[in-house]
Write a structure and sequence with these properties.
Elements (H helix, E strand, L loop, with lengths): L1 E7 L4 E4 L2 E2 L4 H11 L4 E4 H6 L9 E4 L9 E3 L2 H8 L6 E3 L3 H7 L3 E9 L8 E2 L8 E11 L2 E10 L5
Parallel strand pairs: 1-7, 1-8, 4-5, 4-7, 5-6
Antiparallel strand pairs: 2-3, 2-9, 8-11, 10-11
The structure holds NADP nicotinamide-adenine-dinucleotide phosphate (NAP).
Length: 161
Amino acid sequence: MFTLIACVGKNNEIGKKGELVFNIKKDMEFFTRTTLSHPVVMGYNTWLSLPKKLKNRKNIVISYEDFAGPDEVITNLDEFIKKHELSDKEYFIIGGGMIYKRFLPHANSIYLTEVDATVPDADVFFPEFDKTAYKRTIIEEGTGGPLKYSIVNYTKKKEVK
Ligand SMILES: NC(=O)c1ccc[n+]([C@@H]2O[C@H](COP(=O)([O-])OP(=O)(O)OC[C@H]3O[C@@H](n4cnc5c(N)ncnc54)[C@H](OP(=O)(O)O)[C@@H]3O)[C@@H](O)[C@H]2O)c1
């Protein structure tokens, strides 16, 4: 199974010039706590933005070309999705924009840290999704410096046939 986790601004902005748009300590702590010991899946650009491998998690990178460094490089994304989408093992999809978009239709759970701020000139965004199709649960609310945030979990409602 796939779970998305991201930190977004009011316009769904997540990145600017290859970096995160927000750096909120409590959000980082939530990210670490939530993903720890689970495999994390990221796109090549997000991999490049990390100072080092995320420890105590299997680092899986999606790229069209194989390279050394991560624990695993996936070049065939469709095959990876097909293989793991229905498994019991939880894979955390940690960005960035391209990768969230590809996994969104295959994820039943999304953790979003919703920051009450906008970032001009952001260049990467979390994909739009139909929030009425998900149950919204607030996990934590707080402030990081001047920034107000809510950590929210969206879980897909069961389809009624
Ligand atoms: N706020 C947040 O929560 C958050 C989280 C993560 C990242 N970010 C930000 O998001 C930005 C990066 O996002 P991004 O959209 O530019 O890039 P990305 O999603 O991290 O990575 C894109 C790369 O993934 C590979 N890729 C994409 N689709 C593929 C496919 N179907 N098959 C094989 N490889 C594929 C390609 O790599 P190759 O070119 O190597 O083939 C592509 O260039 C940064 O600014 C980062 O800081 C924000």
